Each structure stands twice: as C-alpha cells, then as structure tokens.
Amino acid sequence: MRLIREFEERALELVKTGEIVGGIHPYIGEEAVAAGVCAALRADDQITSTHRGHGHVLAKGADPSRMLAELCGRVTGLNRGRGGSMHAADLGSGILGANAIVGGAAPIAAGAAWAAQRKGTGQVVVTFFGDGALNQGVLLETMNLAALWRLPLVFVCENNGYATTMATAAAVAGSAAGRAGAFGLPSIEVDGMDVVAVHSAAASTVKAAREGAGPTLIEAITYRFGPHHTIERKIRLAYRTQEEIDRWRQRDPLDLQGARIPAPERDRIDAEIIAVIDAAHEFARSSPDPDPKDALDYLYASGLVARGGTANG
Amino acid sequence: MRLIREFEERALELVKTGEIVGGIHPYIGEEAVAAGVCAALRADDQITSTHRGHGHVLAKGADPSRMLAELCGRVTGLNRGRGGSMHAADLGSGILGANAIVGGAAPIAAGAAWAAQRKGTGQVVVTFFGDGALNQGVLLETMNLAALWRLPLVFVCENNGYATTMATAAAVAGSAAGRAGAFGLPSIEVDGMDVVAVHSAAASTVKAAREGAGPTLIEAITYRFGPHHTIERKIRLAYRTQEEIDRWRQRDPLDLQGARIPAPERDRIDAEIIAVIDAAHEFARSSPDPDPKDALDYLYASGLVARGGTANG
Amino acid sequence: MAKLSYAKALNRALADELERDPTVFVFGEDIAAGIARLTAGLAKRFGPERIIDTPISEQAFTSMATGAALAGLRPVIEFQIPSLLFLVFEQIANQAHKFSLMTGGQVAVPVTYVVPSSGSREGWAGQHSDHPYSLYAHVGLKTIVPATPSDAYGLLVSAIRDDDPTVIFAPASAMDLREDVTAELVPVPIGSARVHRHGHDVTVVALGHLVTEALAVADELADEISVEVFDPRTVYPFDWAALAESVDRTGRLVVIDDSNRFCGFGAEVVATAAEELRLIAPPRRISRPEGAVLPFALALDRAIQPGRDQLTAAIRAVMK
Amino acid sequence: MAKLSYAKALNRALADELERDPTVFVFGEDIAAGIARLTAGLAKRFGPERIIDTPISEQAFTSMATGAALAGLRPVIEFQIPSLLFLVFEQIANQAHKFSLMTGGQVAVPVTYVVPSSGSREGWAGQHSDHPYSLYAHVGLKTIVPATPSDAYGLLVSAIRDDDPTVIFAPASAMDLREDVTAELVPVPIGSARVHRHGHDVTVVALGHLVTEALAVADELADEISVEVFDPRTVYPFDWAALAESVDRTGRLVVIDDSNRFCGFGAEVVATAAEELRLIAPPRRISRPEGAVLPFALALDRAIQPGRDQLTAAIRAVMK
Ligand SMILES: Cc1ncc(C[n+]2csc(CCOP(=O)(O)OP(=O)(O)O)c2C)c(N)n1
Ligand SMILES: Cc1ncc(C[n+]2csc(CCOP(=O)(O)OP(=O)(O)O)c2C)c(N)n1
Ligand SMILES: [Mg+2]
Ligand SMILES: [Mg+2]
C-alpha cells in the first residue's frame, strides 16, 4: 500500500511538472483494495484493471520503474510508451491491462478465465471495476455468463461512493450484491479501507474459484481521497463536502495497517519504498522517448503496414 | 386471441404462397400474453414489441387489414410497406414498433415512459420481450434506469422456454424475477396460457405504474407451438421434442378461454373473426405495391435527399 | 467587442435552445457539474428536469432519448468521450436513424448527440482519442464538425431544431479557440460550407480544428501559392455545390481529414471530385493512417495526426 | 468433380481449422443447431467444448473472445445478423483492434468474426439487411468479403490463422453459389485480389455477390466493351498493386459497392485511383445510396441495392 501511495504522490508531482502528459486518475485512499486482493493471488493468476489502475498494476507485481516510465511515455515503459496510465499492461505479470472504458474489461477477464478453465491451469482471474460500472450492460451480461459457466473469476467492485461527480445512490437502483445475486453469484461486502479484511475476503473467494466453485463478487467499500482525475484541479466541483473527505481520511488504509506494524519495521519499509520510487523516477527520466517514425509499430500483430500518416508518408 | 390466431394462420399460408416475403416469427401459442396485457391498457397507453410482434400489434388495436397489408409489403400497410413483420408500428394506436433487435425496444419504451411522466399524461408504457432478452445488457441497464426514475413502465417477459434453439435454463443464470429484484423492481410470475390470469396481473401492475408506484416486471410462462421462424420449416431442428409440444398444446390458451365462453357466443365470435381476416386478406391483396422510385421516401424526416442508388440515379 | 470561446459558444447555443423550446432537455454524465463545459451553469438555470445526470448506461439512455423523441421531445445527449459513439452505435445507427423510414414516415427522431471534445486530447491515448465522424456520415447520420465559435453556436442550434438525429463533434483542439464576435449569433444551416480564405490555385478542404491548421499553411505559402480554405462544416450532408464552385476556379484539390484514411471523409471528397469535377492535377488526401490507434507518448500521438508539414507537401505536390 | 456451395465451403474451412488446431473454438447463437449453416454438423463432431452456444449477450461474448485470445486461443465468432456488428462495435473497434498497439506489442488478438449472411436477405428489412464492411475497414479491421466458394474456403482459413482480429462477411446472396471444385481447396492470402475476367477497356471492381453481377454485365457487353472484372476479395488491406496493374492496362475504373455511398468502399477505391493511378476517363461508383435503410417491400429493397442496369450505364459512361 505504501508503495502505491508513494507512487501516486510522485505521479501527481510529475503531472504538475508536465513529465506526465494527460493526467491520471489517482488511486489514493483505495490502496487496501488492490493490495488486499492481489496478495491473495498466485503469480500466474491474472487481473484486469480500470482507468484508475495504478494500484492494481503495482499490487499485481509490475515493476514500478517500468510503470512510471510508461506514465512518462518512455520506450522502457511497460507498454513501450504506447499505453499510458489508462492502458498499462504487463502480460508477464498476469496484468491483462487497465481499460479506459467503464465495464469494458470484465468480459475480457471472463474470457481469460474461460481459457484457464478450458486448459485446466488452475488460474483465477480478478476483474476490478468501480461502482459506476454496475450500470454498464456488458458487465451484467458478463456476470450471467460467468455464473452460467462457473468461471474462475472474481468480480471486485471498488465502491468509492462516486462515479466522477455522481453519487452511487443516485445512479444505482438496488445494490452491487443484488446484481450478483440476480445471476446466482455469492457476494461479500468488505471494509475497503482495511487491507486485512479485504485480503481474507479475497483469499476465500479466490480459493473457491480455484477449486471450481465458480465466480463471486467482492464489494469493497472505499473512498478516493483525491480528485476523480487530475484535471479536476482546474475546475471547482461541489459534488462532495470537505467534511466528508476529512471523515474518510481518518480511516486512511495506510494508518489502519500501519498501526499493526512495529514502528521500526514501518520506518524500514517506508525508507525502502522511497528508494524504490526515487529509482523509478530516475529510470523514467533517463529513459529515451519513442521515435515518431515508429508511431505505427505494433498496430498489427501480423506486421501489416498501414498507409498514410506522417509516420509512413 | 382468436383474432391473433386466425391472423397468424392466414399469415402462415401467405408465407407459403409467397404473398408474404421473408417469413415471420409466428405468435401461435402465446396469444394470451398480448391479449391479457393489452386489455389492461388505455387507448393512449403505449407498447413496444419484438421480432415476434403480430400479437402485440393486433392486441393493442392496430387494424388487421393494414397489418396484413404491411406484411404483404403494400402501400396501404401500417408502415406503407416499409417496415414489414419485424418493424410494424402504428403510433396512432400507441404502438411504438416491433423491433428486430433483441432487447432493443426496452429503452425506447423507457424513453416514452419518461416523456409521459414528465408531461404528466398518466400514460403507461409496456415493453414486451422474450426470455432471450434477459441476457441483453441494454435491457438490464433499462431496468436500473426505470427503477431509479420510477418510470410508468411495465416489463413483460414472454418466457416461452427458448431463444430460437437455446433453452432458457441453458442461457439464464438466475431468473427473470431475480433480475428485476436486483434493481428493486417488484415482479409477478403468471400463467401465460391463461388470459384471465395475465389480465389481472397486468391490470394491477399498470394501475400501480399509472399511480406513480413505478415499474414492475411480469413474467408470463408461455410456449410457442410453431417454429421460431418460418424458415425453420426448411431445416430440421431437434432442440425440443414433439412430446413437449403436444403437452403444451393441451393448454392451448384459446381452449382455456373458450371453455369459459358459451358455445353460441364463441361461434359468433369465430365467424366474425374469419370475416375480418378474409376482409384483411382481400384488402391486402387488392392494395398497390409501392413504386420503386419512392424507395428512399421517409429516409429523412427533414426531407433531405440522399445521393446514389437506382432510386435517384 | 466580446471574445467568445468555442466551448462557451456551444454552451450558449444549448442554453438558448433550452430557453426557447421547453421540449429540449439534456441527458449525459456529470452534466449537472458541467465538467465538459457544454452544460456549465445550465443545471442551476434550468433544473434537474431539463439537465439530467445519467448513470453510466449509455446504451439505455441513448435509446431512451429516441423514445422521448417519439413522444415529441427534443433530446440532446452529451457524450464525455468520442469512443462512446462506438458503444452506442447500435442505438443510433440501427434504431434512431432507421425509425423514420421503417415506420413509413410516421415518426421523426430529433435527437442531437454532442461530443464536446473529440479527437486527440494529448495523453488520453488509444481509447479516448478517436474521431469517428466518417463512421456516422457513412451510416447516414447528419454529421457536423464546426471550426469556429460562431459556427459551433449556429450549427448546434440548427442541429437541435433539425427533425433528424444529428451528431456534432467538437474537436478537443478547437474547444479553446476564441473569436471576436461582432454580429449577433445566428443559426447556421446544416449542409452549407464556408470559405474561410479565398484563393485561385488550390482548394484545401478542412474540418474543425484543422481549418486553423489549413489557414496557417495558407499564410505560410501566400507568396508562392494562392490557397482557398474550404470548410464544409457539415460532413454529411456535404455541400457539393459549393465545392464545385471552388474547384471550378482552382482546378486543384487537397483534403485534410482527422479520421482514418481508409473509407474516411477525405476519400469521399476526393472520390466525388474525381467523378464529378474538373481537376487539372491529381487530388491529394492528408489523414490519420489506416486503422489508426493513437499511441500514448505525445510525439507518437502527434505523428499519427494529420499535420501542417504533410499539408504543405501535398499542396506543393498538386501544384507541380 | 464435386459441386461445392459457398455455405458448405465456409463450413468445411471451419471444420478443417478446428481439426488442425486445438486452440480454435466457436462462440455464437444457435451454432450447435447450425441454423446459419456455417457450423452445420460441427457440434456433433467437435463437441460442446469447441462449439459453444451462447446466450444473447453479444457484447460480453465478443470481448470474452478477446480475453481468450490473450490467453493464446483462436476464437471464431458467428454473428447471426449483420447489424450485430453495430452492437459489438465497441468490443471490436475499441478493444480487440487496439490491444496490440496499446500494449506495445505484448499481445495479439487472433479472433475471427463471421457473418454468414450479410447484406439484404429479401424481406428481412431495415434492421437485418446491413452490409457494414466499410465501417470495419475504416477502423482498421482486416475485412474480407469472398465471392466464390473456393475463396470463401481459402479466406476463412487464412482469417482464422491470421494473428489480427478479422471480419468476414458472407453475403446472403452468395451463400447458395455453387462451384465445380477440381483442384484441392487451399488458403487464400488476405489482401490479394483476383481477376475473374480479363479485359482491356475498363476495370470493374466488385466484391462478394456483386462479382457475379459484374461478370453477367461483362458478358452482356462483350461485343462492344472489353470489361475486366477485378475482385479485391479483401476490402482492407486492399491489393493496390494489383489494381494499379489492371488500371494501367484499361485506364478506366468503375466500382460497384453494396455498402452506403458516403465514405464507403467505393469511395476509397475511386479516391486512391484518382490520387495514384492514371485514368483516361473520370471513374464511377455504383453503391447503396447515402444513409441507406432497406425498406421491407421487395421492389423497394432491390431499388436500394446496386444493380446491373446501373453498372451497365456506368460502364458505358466511362467509355464515352
Ligand atoms: C463506458 C464509459 N462511459 C463513460 C466513461 C467516462 N468515465 C471515465 S471514469 C468515469 C467514472 C467511473 O466511475 P466508477 O466506475 O465508480 O470508477 P471510479 O472513477 O469511481 O474509480 C466515467 C463516467 C468511460 N470511460 N466509459
Ligand atoms: C441482439 C440480437 N441478437 C440476436 C438476434 C437474432 N435473434 C432473433 S430472435 C432471437 C431469439 C430471441 O429469443 P427470445 O428473446 O426468447 O424471443 P422468442 O423468439 O422466444 O419469442 C435471436 C437470437 C437479434 N435479433 N438481436
Ligand atoms: Mg466510483
Ligand atoms: Mg423465448
């Protein structure tokens, strides 16, 4: 969690300095969800992530240096600078990708789970999504297929109370659990600020999925401390009160967990992590930018070369 | 119901003779659903229908002659021969149209219900759909919005046990009622072969919707006696047994209701209806075909004329 | 003399129509907060019955707008990102667009779909940088890409008043353009082009933010080549009569297009010109590459978009 | 000497690939029953693990195929009707197509999407008669429209083996074509055209079922005009080299296209020819009208589709 927090703090600075172009959707406040869930996964298990994906990607084991290099658009980035914040992927670590379309990753995760089931690999796939995705049709279609075919898939809903400016209560008739129940999926609601609680919920559902008991839903009640996206800085939005934010900050997942770790231990970890982030920043900064003439590389896996554009005449 | 049955029997003949091009999805066996539901509606209430729409359109009050003329592609048809079986619409009778896309009409009905609520007209909108649509994302999105905004909308699921060749049980994890419940919609399961049962369920839900109590789901358990579509005649399909069909035929909705009507009365109605259908057929047969040079008429409500095509050089 | 921004012009057009016509209302995400600027301040002024924040259920609310239109209302939908027009392709191309003909003219579907930041947004990468106006023109939606604040105002007003479903793309790179508005803002008819700069050597067809690029290139080349900058303003229906008038004078044609090359807007303009107009030199297209996906890194993102150097080279080429 | 139907050729190609490669499987509606003919008999032969009947959840199973492809499988999806390609536009154009570039080449998405009855089906009317191949070519999907049984076989095999997502349209009007197959059926490379009939006066570019129409017209005109019938077989990528070779000889070009005129396939061919080839007469396009919606009545349905009379008139026009 500390790694994610430090990574995001640094990323926010780099957005300010312009080293990161386009801004980010900070995960600050929600770290316990990614950390708790991914701690319950095997290295060969897989995840899909969201527009707010840095936490998931780091928790699943991507190299922070290559992740930060990706956000800075460098060739050494996870996606060679082609994906950026909303598309960071690392297949080698089981990260099938952040996804910029709300709900869009769930069926991709289900397909990977279907393949794992078919091959009998014992892999489990976790798909992270926000409360806003609870109203996206394709996610609901996916719950039906996952239940029908008993896929080794865990749906993790990060309910942070808002979809951009829209309160969950104003957008969701019924509930996350109710949606899961409609398709026969068991669900667990968990305190998303407590990494231990998240982990135990994840451990049991992942174990069940691995043993063939089928998919489940975990609804993690959490909160984002920062803006929906860094552009929010430029515009004043009144969709939530400072008082509400302060109340939640008192349950900072890092403090809750930190209190469980002896101070010296904690300081050692913190120091380590600062070093990791500094190294990551140095790595990103010193890495080369991609060459514009390679702008169309990887467009077609088969190597087909598209016509037009400056890249090739 | 008798009208729908006779209409469909005649339409089946006309498909054989080629007077109806492209075939139809016969409603035979499911008449009690359309008849029971539409009997609970006001003339200014509205419906949306499906690919299997003849029953809904007739029950809501469209002229059988203009409906049959539409199926025969005549200018006197409800849609001036432009729509055919899967797009029959009669705005004057509150029929917003059959729809050829599974689940596609539900949000259109919700929009009409939203407009009625906004204008305070007291109109209720009914959207018919099959069990297959229970797995279509946009229908589930619509349930959420209808519940959230308490729209005067009644969802009527015609569960006839199959989506083309796929058994409902093989396609639907959970149930129709469970889906409604997920969004906080009350639901009623009803014997779709008994028009009186359907009518009383419809009457109560329509009344509730009209009074502002919001949307509900009616799941009518029914069965189609014939093929999914008339092309099924050409191909042998083994997705259901003759024995199953025979068992359901013993609960023919016309017989169930017929038994409640005195024989002489029944004979009078039957005779009347035969006359109506004969007249409709005569009307359709004697109506003119549209002129090919008018093929692009109505493409744009604003009168914009498209370029290209034989229609206009 | 007031400076009007493109974003503000869209906002004012929507406000004026909401004021003028009680059947107009808006569906969209975060529109009460007005983060995309199109609806800034409108929730306060018109209330939650006219400015409706929707859950993230684009397919449902897009067809709800169709249903509301069948009931006589004039819905406007704001889409936060251009690729949402992929998500609702069924609802617009297969439902809204087809209703009038399929019902034999019983109904009209006067819905206006607005994308207040289309195309590249620098750093939004692959799934948030599309410019799908050619797709919508192909299926037959009235498709508009205004280049200036006053055109943005006038075309949005016309779109809302039009009886057919209409899509308006406001390029992200145009949203901050400012214009000195002297005259009163008026509706601009759909399907009428505008010549921003007259010239006699070559006609450059440009849309939206690329009009600015074309004008800059025309300036640079002014001493050697007289460039006419032709802005159709509406992709479909296209103002062929005006193009014919221009090309009759210049005899040469270059099209710059921010959509993908294959079957793009540029292809249509060049094809129709080749069929119907008298060209004294082969025409040229500048566009995004075939099948373009915008990479994240800024240098790559820009390399995929049609630019001034390409346009300059193309103009020189047709003058050879 | 066996008569092979187009539908049977697709069925055989799919069977051969299922046999050859255990990672190939099929998602679709009613495919166990095989009502669309593509999968006839395959459920019995390959079982429910390879031929998977899906609920009516096109968006979910289309992206599931993407996920399965990321895991190394080669999914094939059957779409019962062409407009389902509108419904899954997001999943194909914005997800499957973009994964390779967005991940910096980490993955391939070898999914094949098949529409075994595209275009008009006489009487299926507005929402079931589309031919959206130009849309998919525009966004950059490899897009194939075979004209003959042996090409249908060879191109489906190549599509399944290809590492990129690929869409194959099998026109409803071509499904019953029969061909005397003498040689062994072999893969046909994606992006390679075929000249069905050689001629020296005019090159007619035709796709799918329209190749048959073009050949018929070429026969009718044989005494007066020597028509070359050029079948690209693949819409995108297009075989420009082969077209250049043909047009260099004929100097004249007519394209017949069953998609909508505006930004359609015909526009791309005419535009590229105008830019890059030497034409001695203005080229011509025959297509569906702009924004076409097929009316139900048969006479109207046919009036919207490109036909022989128009083609004949266009050929005569370019010969003037
Ligand atoms: C289908 C779709 N609609 C709209 C958007 C624009 N958008 C990006 S993030 C977001 C809010 C998502 O809220 P939620 O799912 O709760 O995730 P959170 O941002 O709270 O983590 C929206 C509307 C999108 N990316 N995809
Ligand atoms: C979205 C969509 N997918 C597939 C089809 C093709 N199709 C037409 S009817 C049908 C089955 C529908 O089953 P159901 O909803 O149960 O209605 P029923 O035919 O049983 O009345 C299918 C798959 C379609 N029209 N629309
Ligand atoms: Mg949220
Ligand atoms: Mg059914």
Which secondary structure elements does this structure contain, and how are they paired or packed?
The complex is a heterotetramer, with two copies of chain A (313 residues) and two copies of chain C (320 residues).
Chain A: H1 2-17, H2 31-38, E1 46-48, H3 54-59, H4 64-71, H5 106-119, E2 125-130, H6 137-148, E3 153-159, E4 162-163, E5 166-167, H7 168-171, H8 176-182, E6 187-191, H9 195-210, E7 216-221, H10 242-249, H11 253-258, H12 263-286
Parallel strand pairs in A: 1-2, 2-3, 3-7, 6-7
Antiparallel strand pairs in A: 4-5
Chain C: E1 2-5, H1 6-20, E2 24-28, H2 42-46, E3 51-53, H3 58-70, E4 74-78, H4 84-87, H5 89-95, H6 99-102, E5 112-118, H7 133-139, E6 142-144, H8 149-161, E7 166-171, E8 178-181, E9 194-197, E10 202-205, H9 209-221, E11 227-231, E12 234-236, H10 240-250, E13 253-260, H11 265-276, E14 284-288, H12 298-304, H13 308-319
Parallel strand pairs in C: 2-3, 2-4, 4-5, 5-7, 6-7, 10-11, 10-13, 13-14
Antiparallel strand pairs in C: 1-8, 6-12, 9-11
Helix pairs in contact in C: 1-8, 3-5
Bound molecules: thiamine diphosphate (2 copies) and magnesium ion (2 copies).
One magnesium ion is lined by residues 130-132, 160, 162-163 of chain A.
